[in-house]
Amino acid sequence: MSVISWSARLSAERRRFPKRLALLSKGVIAAILIAPLFAQTPSQPDWKALEPEMMQQFQAVLRFDTRNPPGNEHLVADYLKGVFDKAGIPAQIFALDANRSNVVARLKGNGKKKPILILGHSDVVTVDEAKWKFPPFSATRDGGWVYARGTVDDKDNLTGGLMTMLLLKRYNVPLDRDVIFMSEAGEEGSSNFGMQFMVNQHYPEIESEYCLAEGGGAIRIGGVAKYTTVETLEKIPRGIELVAHGISGHGSIPLKSNAIVHLAGAVARVGEWRPEIRFNETTGTYFRGLAQIAAPENAKYYRDVLSTDPKLRAAADQWLFENEPLHSSMLRTSVSPNIFAGGYRSNVIPSEAKATLDVRALPDEDPVKFLEQVKKVVNDPAVDVHFTSQNIRPASAFDARLDSEPYKVLEAAAKRVYDTITLPTMSTGATDMAPLRARGVQCFGIGAAIDMEDGPKGFGMHSDQERLLETELYRFVRYNYEVVVDLARAK
Amino acid sequence: MVRSAKALAERRRSPRRLALLLWLAALVAMQAQQPAPFDSAQGRQPDWRAAEDEIMRHYQAVLRLDTTNPPGNEHLAVEYLKQVFDAENIPSQVFALDPNRSNIVARLKGNGKKRPLLIMGHTDDVTVDASKWKFPPFSATRDGGYVYARGTIDDKDNLTAGLMTMVMLKRMQVPLDRDVIFLAESGEEGNSNFGIQFMVAQHFDQIDAEYCFAEGGGVTRIGGEARFATVQATEKIPRGIELTARGISGHGSIPLKSNAIVHLAAAVARVGEWRPEVRFNETTGTYFRGLAAISPPDVAAHYRDVLSSDPKVRAAADDWLAEHEPQHASMLRTSVSPNIFTGGYRSNVIPSEAKATLDVRMLPDEDPARFLEQVKRVINDPAVDAHFPSQNTRPPAPAARQDSEPFKAIEAANTRIYNVPTLPTMSTFATDMAQLRAKGMQCYGIGPAVDLEDGPKGFGMHSDQERLLEAELYRFVRFNYEVVVDLSRAR
Questions:
Q1: Which of A96, A103, B50, B413 would bridge A183 by S-S if both were Cys, CB 3.0 to 4.6 A apart?
Q2: Are strands B422-427 and B225-235 parallel, antiparallel or unpaired?
Q3: Nearest-by-Cβ selection for B268 from A237, A257, A264
Q4: How far lies A238's CA from each of A4, A130, A333, A335, B344, in Å?
Q5: In 3-state terms, what secondary structure has residue B33?
Q6: Partner-chain contact A358 B252, CB within 8 Å
């Protein structure tokens, strides 16, 4: 999914939470459990007391090896189905492939309003196990963090959605609209098993007015939550493949046409190239908002990158690339060469070498024109440049509106839970919201708070040390629950 | 390796009357039911025309055995050869460190006046990328006068010639002043521990000889004409260098400055474009001067210029050679060819590591440690590590002498059969002669005629269209036989 940094401030959070109140709310929850009628005026769950349960659910889903490929999301689907069954929440499994199932759970409302859908995907990207300090499916707790593949992509949202459903049920929150939860398979590159399948075959099961999924969250800088992002727009992933052809031969005789050398030159040039900067309404609002709340030394770069002076803009761009690569990617159609394969034996010059560029296009990018630009940068007739044939998510027809009810609710929750303002953002990663947005659903990307610094330090999403602060898991579950209650409870 | 052929011209030159006489002689021999004894005074020749079918049959038979290394399975070739030797009543014995990777030694006894002569051919092939081959790589398809297969010129040509020489010596009952030993060795392509290393360490008495012949030389055709013959008298020393780039892993939607693939690509591009300094030794000096003396003026100018002390003149000649005669460019220096590049495992994940392998062929006098420092300076990127991997290295040894009996016999045969002068040469690749030269054996690399243009056109050794002219196979067998007879027959 997308990256956005987040933040947690555990100690501050704990300090703000007086023991007396904790004790009091524990008592209240006990009362609610005994007398569910109290749920008419839902009081706050005792979040402190719920921490072990949240952690237990988070670790349980993290410990299922659902790397995709092959996926095996049925492990998570079966687990969740069991949890819903036990809680008395109606849930159903939908699968194109039995090993790659999806689960939909639904809490009925009074039907006054159209449903709200909470999404979490159950698959994770693959791992290079040798690189992990803690085994990638161990969900090891260390120094206040949980380490595992999926901690911030996307088993945090999965856990947030699951806990929200469980708590809504447990407290018998009366609802004006159905609340639907879906655990989907194949988000990481095979959505034909997940979102595509559900939208094409079982759309009535998930049809809704609003949806919440991954793609946003609070951003911590220097350990303090500075702002919260809500993803309202996303870039469109396009793969580009570079193929170099040369003459094969014996490695003892270097050849000018060496496919690996030509491809290396092409990849080096493309890797150093940064396509032109272009803003849209979401990113413009985002950077202007960021400039207002950021520390002056950083605010300068957010302002400068919006400048019409090319020199100021370029310097700010360079700073962002080195220090806040996420922001650098938001400015443009980005290109990241992520695979390079050529050669099979050290003494044989291969006749072919291939590289794959991960391209994230701005929503308004013209793919054909962009491909031409890449060819100009590659500038080598020995290297062929073409789009890969991969699952392409549709460009979303509707951006989520900033003046909508959910956006305002999200703003209020961020103020309350994280004490931050909310900025709309464009996700650099694609999400499964794209096909829903294409059908007119207002979708908003949310997520747990993470540190802006984690990505460049190698702790980010898809990295070999993917992690989440324990306290930020808890805080996110609360945020998730409060947003859904605010949007769905009977008024 | 460079070789060549002009079969048609050869046939035209051979007078019909002589052919008829030879044919009659053969007929007489057949009628006698057993071969007539070799008459050293008359120097009776085998009927090479009549032997073509048999030569082609053995050649295709060994080419059709899949001995790609790894895994090798050289025992397939050994079993074939053993059965041929048994049928011809030539004593032979199999030696194996691993039963699948056996070697075979055959010996024709002489009267012991002189120390033995060893003829070698290796049975293993480099691997293939079968999808790139027009004709299946183990089909030994005959097309347009060529035979196409992996191993046609590396090294089943020498294997076939050695086999035919043994068979002919036996059949013609050539009396010998020295034993003639044939060794078909396994593992030449990177695992000589199964082949020459094993034989030298464990069974040296079986192959101990005064002189040896193996791959590494041949006749060079330019524009379809045999121009000169080369005899490999020394060889470069192969040393792999591995480059490893390390960066931060992350999601491909956010390009990172530390991207390991981009850093490694830039390093490989720089190393691939770099040409280490030109340096001559006695063999290569003699070779280029000899070449300048026999080449047409326009080409000769480049051979002379590259020997020049004027750096500009030398650089221009070097550029021309790199473009037009890459194996000559490789003879001028320690060469570097980046042949493997692997990094990344998923298009949307920036990997934390990428690796490339450089095939380095060092001049015999190169200082490996100093050369590695030069490579590091060219790469000039602290994110990219360069080091020697631990692999089989061949021992350095003094060059074979040019004033020796075998060199003169080869020179004479080249004049007689190809009508070309002979130049001593340094092969750019390693051969199993390195281990024997280190034992004090005088070893000479020979081979069939191939076109100088074949390498750059993609028909060379280790290429995806490796091939040999049928007529040049026949001519090479004759050459091989005549040189061995010249050196070994009783006088």
A1: A103
A2: parallel
A3: A264
A4: 20, 29, 10, 10, 17
A5: coil
A6: yes
**The model's pTM:** 0.72
Instruction: Name residue B408's amino acid.
Output: K
Q: CA dist B477 to A218, A328, A432, B46, B48, Å?
A: 78, 67, 68, 11, 9
A110 pLDDT more than 90: yes
User: pLDDT tens for residues A237-253?
Assistant: 899 999 999 999 889 99
Give B342's contacts in chain A (Cβ within 8 Å): 340-343
* Nearest alpha carbon to residue A159 among A376, A394, A377, A473: A473
Token code pair at residue B325: 């005669």
Q: Is the alpha carbon torsion for B181, B184, B185, B189 positive or negative?
A: positive
Task: Give percent of chain A with pLDDT exceeding 70.
Answer: 89
Tokens representing residue A483 in the block: 């947003």
- Answer yes or no: is pLDDT of B430 > 80: yes
Q: Which chain B residues touch A251 with a CB distance below 8 Å?
A: 337, 339, 359, 361, 462
B225-246 b/e (C-beta count within 10 Å ≥ 16 → b): ebbbbbbbbbbbbbbbbbbbbb
Give B295's pLDDT tier (boundaries 50, 70, 90): confident
pLDDT of residue A22: 36
DSSP state, A227?
E
- Do you find a cis peptide bond into B298, omega within 30 degrees of 0? no
From chain A, pick out residues whose CB is under 8 angstroms from the CB of B266: 264, 268, 271-272
Instruction: Judge contact between B446 and B475, C-beta under 8 A.
Output: no
Q: Please give the structure tokens belonging to residue A91.
A: 């849930």
Q: Are residues A343 and B354 in contact, defined by beta-carbon separation less than 8 angstroms?
A: no
Question: If 0-12 CB within 10 Å is exposed, 13-18 middle and 19+ buried, where does residue A159 land?
Answer: buried
Question: Amino acid identity, residue A188?
Answer: E
Cβ proximity of B475 and B449 under 8 Å: yes
Residue in A377, A424, A345, A386 with CA at minimum distance from that of residue A269: A377
Report the C-alpha gap between A199 and A435 in whole angstroms: 8
Q: Residue A185 carries which side chain, given as an amino acid letter?
A: A
- Measured from the Cβ of residue A440, the count of other Cβ atoms closer than 10 Å reads 11
Across the interface, of B253, B261, B460, the residue whose CB is closest to A249 is B460
A345 touches chain B (CB under 8 A): yes
Arithmetic mean of pLDDT, A72-97: 98
Residue the block writes with tokens 């001028």: B332
Judged against a pLDDT cut of 70, whether residue B407 lies above it is answered with yes
Separation of alpha carbons A420 and A217, rounded Å: 11
Average pLDDT over residues B338-342: 98
Q: Is the model's pLDDT at B398 over the cut of 90?
A: no
Chain-chain contact of A260 with B340 (C-beta, under 8 angstroms): yes
Kindly give, in sequence order, each residue whose CB lies less than 8 Å from that of residue A114, ignoring residues fewer than 6 positions away. A177, A207, A208, A209
Q: Which residue has the tokens 């056996």?
A: B102
Best B320, B333, B339 member to test A by mutation, with max A CBs in 10 Å, is B339
Packing angle between helix B282-294 and helix B297-306, nearest 10 degrees?
Answer: 160
pLDDT at A395: 57
Cross-sheet strand order for the sheet of B384-387: A383-387, A236-245, A352-361, A334-342, B335-343, B353-362, B237-246, B384-387
- The secondary element (H helix, E strand) that includes residue B131 is none
pLDDT (mean) for A453-474: 89
A8 pLDDT band, cuts 50/70/90, is very low
Number of Cα atoms under 13 Å in the Cβ half of residue A320 = 26
